[in-house]
Amino acid sequence: MIIVIILFVFIIIGVFIYNSLIEKRNQVTNAFSSIDVMLKKRYDLIPNLVEIVKQYTNYEQSTLTKIVELRSRATSGSLTEAEKASLDTELSSAVKGLMVTVENYPDLKANTNFLNLQSTWTESEEQIAAARRTYNASVTSYNNAIMMFPGNLFAGMLKYTQIDVLATPEEERKNISAKELFNN
Question: What's the CA dihedral at 169, 171, 172, 178 to 10 degrees?
């Protein structure tokens, strides 16, 4: 009878650990889906941003073309999570460069449509940052669960592996010189 009780307890613990691992893995998937939703919102803003900027500037056409091409790749639907993250970094960099250049066009900076679009863009970027933090917290919880005993035993059997957190690229970690921004 004692052996049956001990076996029953181990089964209950095993089910609990298994369900916990599944839950954490699903949280990671859900968190990345939230990032996808925010990125879609951002991608939907890009055509409007490009059109408004085109109307007011003689801005280098290749940059606008690059932004449109990156958006097209991003919305193609055939990218892996890693490719989406990489493309997101490229697109963010291109749009940030565009926003800095806009400073040279006072008419554009005063345009109500552009100001509204810029405000929406900023809000979207803040939502993406929040979704990334949520994703990284979910990934950390998942990684902890599959690395710690006894979860690591089940994770090994289920072939669960660690997932990388989203990290800021090295070039975005550098200090920004306001003097250099305004001297260009």
Answer: 180
CB atoms under 10 Å from CB of 143, counted, come to 19
User: How many residues are present in the chain?
Assistant: 184
**pLDDT digits 0-9 by tens, 71-130:** 888 888 788 888 888 888 888 888 887 777 777 777 777 778 888 888 888 898 899 999
> CB under 8 Å to 161, separation ≥6 — which residues?
146
Tell me the three state secondary structure of residue 23. helix
- R_g (Cα) of the chain, nearest Å: 23
Distance between CA atoms of residues 68 and 52, nearest Å: 13
Joined together, the tokens standing for residue 79 give 């990218």
User: Do residues 123 and 117 touch, judged by C-beta distance below 8 A?
Assistant: no
- Spatial contact of 67 and 46, defined as CB atoms under 8 Å apart: yes
159: left (phi over 0), alpha (psi -120 to 50) or beta: left
pTM value surpassing 0.85: no
- What token pair was written down for 108? 């554009």
